[in-house]
Specification:
The complex is a heterodimer. Chain A is α+β, with helices and mostly antiparallel strands. Chain A is 28% helix and 20% strand. Chain A has helices at residues 12-21, 34-39, 75-79, 82-87, 89-96, 101-106, 109-114, 120-123, 175-182, 199-202, 283-287, 296-306, 318-334; strands at 5-8, 25-28, 47-50, 59-61, 67-70, 155-156, 162-163, 185-190, 193-198, 221-227, 235-241, 252-261, 264-273. In chain A, the strands form 4 sheets. A 5-stranded antiparallel β-sheet of chain A has the order 4-5-10-8-9. Chain A has a 3-stranded parallel β-sheet with strand order 1-3-2, covered by helices on one side. In chain A, helix 12 (296-306) crosses helix 13. Chain B has helices spanning 42-49, 97-100, 110-117, 127-140, 146-152, 163-178, and strands at 21-27, 30-36, 68-71, 74-77, 90-92. Classes of the chains: A alpha+beta, B alpha+beta. The interface between A and B is medium-sized, with 27 and 34 residues.
């Protein structure tokens, strides 16, 4: 770990000012990902701004009937909150599918959004990685890429020809997949005041700048995550497929949520984890389900549309078919056509 | 042959001495003032600065659970937090779990006694973390079935493979509490 200085922020404004004052400064809350990356010398901040004492530690009702999750509420306290369990069970299920109880007791909601990829090459400072060292190359494309992305990696050159991808890392979060499906909004405060970022715009695709994970400006601090009124409490499923039954990152995960009138689908949300640089949603695929009966056929059509354009890189090519089958199964479970165990 | 140390190039970054902070930690009810560099993890503060070596360092990356301690009654990985961030919190380590159960005739926490009764360890290296984690699991009150106990203990690895007896020990205490 590199040498750094430490300051405990006593207000959001103080935290933001500290960040503005020093380019190499970073915020720290749960620390579960940042300290790990510092031990691996992937991250080397010059100053840590401890935000854990800031007043962002509660879950409150919003005026439009949703919930506001404070950025510093732990993942465990969020997942076990009665209101979250009753109104946003998909979110609760997704959080509890990730990490371990100890990590969920430490990790915060804001930090969950900010966690970085678990790509082996990103962690291994002896290997080239465009995310860690822009311009050094991607070791995963022709390397061990079982856990890597199949969607949103392709690039076009200036003359419109397919170009070599810069990065095939995935976003590791389970929580974010559910937040994407529900359609959460991220509240941030920066040097110039507050703004909100729709969840779909928060994380980004790698493009030619894979070292940038999200659309947060360097002076901005996440203060809360707003959940809309509808959390799809009746018909939902978070299906996570991984190499062992517990405490592992997803190879593919699906957050599926449906609104039904009888057997007819009136609204559908599908977000995928483990397949892209961000939680993967495609409104066109969801629209295919609206007005259709709950059936394997309509689910398959949505799955095919979601995976359209998917590209495998060898060891991860199996994910294309796995993701389609996982979508069909998760939608079936959400519609209660299939058992959840 | 003479060895000559080469002077570093002029623009090379030369590390400075660490900024030392006075950090006050409350561990097992006792307050201690320590002089720590900011990067000292809670785990290193306990082991290297307070001589409390019951808490073990396994992976030092939050993957094995050997360093599990309780902070304000909640189990966390002490390797992934800075000591300076834990000022003002009640920290309980394996050395302090027995005193959490003051009325126990054995002088042990029920989880400790159940680990002995069920032979829930082999080499013992992961045991302090397993016990602190199990105490945290009881505090959380979420484990209803054997499958729940297994899932909610997944952050603690036992390379000897004593899992069967660990789960049995924890279930024994859950059943005692339910009576």
């Amino acid at each position: 770990m590199n040498s750094f200085t430490y300051i405990r922020a006593d207000s959001v404004e103080h935290a933001v000012n500290e960040r503005v004052a020093e380019t190499g400064a970073r915020f720290i809350a749960g620390g579960t990902n940042l300290l790990d990356l510092m031990k691996e010398t992937v991250e080397h901040p010059s100053r840590l701004i401890d935000i854990t004492r800031l007043p962002m530690t509660s879950i409150t009702e919003t005026v439009d009937g949703g919930l506001r999750l404070g950025a510093l509420v732990t993942n465990a306290d969020t997942a076990y909150d009665k209101r979250v369990q009753e109104r946003y069970p998909l979110l609760s299920q997704a959080i509890l599918a990730g990490a371990s109880p100890q990590l969920r007791n430490m990790a915060t909601n804001g930090g969950n959004l900010m966690q970085r990829t678990r790509c082996y090459y990103f962690y291994d400072v002896a290997t080239p990685c465009n995310k860690r060292e822009p311009g050094s190359g991607c070791s995963a494309i022709n390397g061990f890429n079982r856990i890597h992305a199949i969607l949103g990696t392709q690039l076009l050159s200036q003359d419109g020809m397919p170009a070599e991808p810069q990065c095939i890392a995935t976003h590791p979060s389970d929580m974010c997949v559910a937040l994407a499906a529900i359609g959460a909004v991220v509240r941030v405060t920066g040097n110039y005041g507050e703004r909100t970022i729709p969840f779909a715009d928060f994380h980004r695709l790698p493009g030619n700048t894979p070292h940038i994970d999200n659309s947060l400006a360097s002076d901005e601090l996440i203060t809360a995550i707003d959940l809309p009124q509808n959390g799809f409490p009746k018909n939902h499923m978070y299906l996570k497929l991984r190499d062992r039954a517990s405490y592992a990152f997803a190879l593919v995960s699906v957050a599926a949520a449906l609104e039904l009138e009888g057997d007819t689908i009136t609204d559908a949300r599908i977000a995928l984890g483990g397949v892209a640089h961000k939680p993967w949603r495609k409104p066109e695929a969801e629209a295919l389900l609206v007005g259709k009966p709950v059936s394997g056929e309509s689910f398959q059509a949505a799955a095919d549309a979601l995976l359209a354009g998917a590209q495998g890189y060898g060891a991860n090519t199996f994910k294309i078919e796995l993701a389609k089958r996982a979508i069909v199964r998760a939608l079936g479970q959400a519609a209660k056509l299939e058992p959840t165990e | 042959m003479t060895l000559i140390a080469e002077a570093p190039p002029k623009d090379t970054y030369i590390p400075s001495l660490p900024p030392i902070h006075t950090v006050t930690l409350t561990v097992n009810g006792i307050e201690a003032q320590l002089q720590l560099a900011p990067w000292t993890s809670l785990l290193d503060a306990l082991r290297e600065y307070m001589d409390m070596t019951g808490t073990k360092k396994g992976c030092d990356h939050g993957q094995c659970g050997a360093c599990t301690v309780l902070v304000d009654g909640k189990r966390i990985n002490s390797c992934l937090t800075l000591a300076i961030m834990q000022e003002g919190k009640q920290i309980t380590t394996i050395e302090g779990v027995a005193q959490m159960a003051t009325d126990a005739p054995s002088g042990l926490h029920p989880i400790q006694k159940a680990f002995i009764d069920c032979d829930a360890f082999q080499c013992g290296y992961c045991t302090p973390g397993q016990i602190c984690s199990a105490v945290g699991l009881l505090n959380e009150g979420q484990a209803k079935t054997t499958a729940d106990v297994r899932e909610l203990m997944s952050g603690n690895i036992c390379r000897c493979g004593a899992y069967t007896n660990i789960v049995q020990a924890i279930e024994e205490v859950i059943n005692q509490q339910a009576v």
